[in-house]
Specification:
Layout lengths: L11 H7 L26 H5 L16 H14 L3 E5 L2 H11 L6 E5 L4 H13 L3 E5 L15 E7 L11 H11 L4 E5 L17 E5 L13 E5 L2 H14 L5 H12 L1 H20 L4 E5 L9 H7 L6 E6 L4 H9 L5 E2 L9 E5 L14 E6 L5 H21 L1
Parallel strand pairs: 2-3, 2-4, 4-5, 5-6, 10-11
Antiparallel strand pairs: 1-7, 6-7, 8-9, 9-12, 11-12
Helix pairs in contact: 3-8, 4-5, 4-7, 9-12, 11-12
């Protein structure tokens, strides 16, 4: 669908503007309209009988249409893979990918940094399906070979982790696993990097997954997921699984995803700059025991981030010493610019207290109270003032106790 050559000799900023677009096919419209269609009509029996998933034939709304084809082409170009499959959410992209490449009796390795709903699916439906799930230390690197079994079928990474922000040595893990067993499928949740700041398919990953709800959509108004495959056989297997599972994205959310892609790079640049400014301010706060931002030197995996990433997004966390719940509430309940809620990647800033100890198993959480921030597109100084006032409320509550 792209109007320029795939991975052509153009800057990434340029490719993001044109990827997945074909105005000549749609009356010259700059944006492909959302195709809200379930039934597709065929003119001849020969057309009805013809079916080749690799040709992206439009046969039924759920199995693909010009909206999904355009979005998938654009994301494939962004992540520099073979092809992509779109889904109704990031979690659906994760669960469908895991189901596509596993069967009863298989063994799956998952990084201990994994998104909590990923763990919920792995510990629930995947385990009940007769698949053995094992979590591993995100800092394991090439040492992962010690955990491989003859039945290992998938190694699932998430780097940085979206709660504790450890960065994994993805190239070392991929090289070690592939050398030990080239049939093992390597997957990664690449949402933090938005497909832009890190290119996992260049480092040996086979399936790169994003919650496009986050930075790709960018406006907190779409629910969308996508998985990009490096190999055609992997894409065909995932596409077949998506069809069997009835997994698909809505035309309107695909439209919003394509819209968000056009401004992804400029938005991420602002998230990066403001995020680092706020993180460095937090480092100097007496209430903060540690800032977990991969761009900061004392964050686990910082050297790997410098080596492998081209920038940071706006999502990171900081630790404080344990405080009574009412004192924590005094801080977060009164925020002006920071909303309190799940998700991230939109234009607005968010704050979320969390406890990683509840979901870590391979590597027990040894840190303090964790407060995750998403730094949005507001003025960074306004956000700092909001946090400063929040710390004042926290200290006042502690003194009043």
């Amino acid at each position: 669908m792209s109007s320029i050559d795939k991975h052509g000799p153009f800057a990434e900023e340029t490719r993001l503007i044109h990827a997945g677009r074909a105005p000549a096919l749609f009356g010259g419209a700059v944006n492909i309209p959302p195709f809200r269609a379930s039934t597709v009509l065929f003119q001849t029996l020969a057309d009805l009988d013809a079916h080749d998933p690799a040709l992206r034939m439009v046969r039924y709304g759920r199995t693909g249409n010009p909206s999904s084809h355009a979005f998938e082409a654009a994301i494939t170009e962004l992540e520099e893979g073979h092809d992509a499959v779109s889904f109704a959410s990031g979690l659906q992209a994760i669960t469908s990918s895991l189901l596509a490449f596993t069967r009863q009796g298989d063994h799956v390795l998952i990084a201990d940094t994994a998104y909590a709903p990923t763990r919920g699916f792995a510990n629930g439906i995947l385990s009940r399906s007769g698949i053995t799930v094992e979590y591993f230390d995100p800092g394991i690197g090439a040492g992962i070979t010690a955990l491989l079994r003859p039945t290992t079928r998938v190694v699932f990474l998430e780097s940085p982790g979206s709660l504790t922000f450890e960065v994994q040595d993805v190239p070392a893990i991929c090289a070690a696993v592939t050398a030990a067993n080239p049939d093992i499928v390597l997957m990664i949740d690449n949402t933090w990097a938005a497909g832009l700041l890190f290119k996992p398919l260049k480092h040996g990953v086979h399936v790169s997954i994003q919650s496009a709800t986050k930075y790709v959509g960018g406006h907190s108004d779409a629910s969308l997921g996508v998985a990009v495959c490096m190999r055609q056989d992997h894409w065909l297997r995932l596409k077949k699984a998506a069809i069997e599972l009835g997994a698909c994205a809505s035309a309107d959310d695909l439209f919003l995803g394509l819209r968000g892609l056009r401004s992804l790079q400029v938005r991420l640049r602002r998230h990066h700059e403001s995020g680092i400014k706020v993180a460095r301010w937090l480092e100097a706060r007496p209430e903060v025991t540690r800032v977990r931002h991969p761009a900061l030197p004392d964050c686990p995996g910082h050297a790997l981030w410098v080596r492998d990433f081209t920038g940071a997004c706006g999502l990171f966390a900081f630790e404080i010493a344990p405080v009574p719940r009412p004192a924590l509430a005094a801080m977060v309940d009164g925020m002006h610019h920071f909303g309190m809620g799940y998700s991230w990647g939109g234009f607005e800033s968010l704050i979320l207290p969390s406890n990683p100890a509840a979901i870590r198993t391979a590597t027990p959480w040894a840190g303090g109270e964790l407060i995750r921030l998403h730094i949005g597109l507001e003025d960074a100084d306004d956000l700092i003032a909001d946090l400063d006032a929040g710390f004042a409320r926290l200290n006042a509550a502690l003194e009043a106790k």
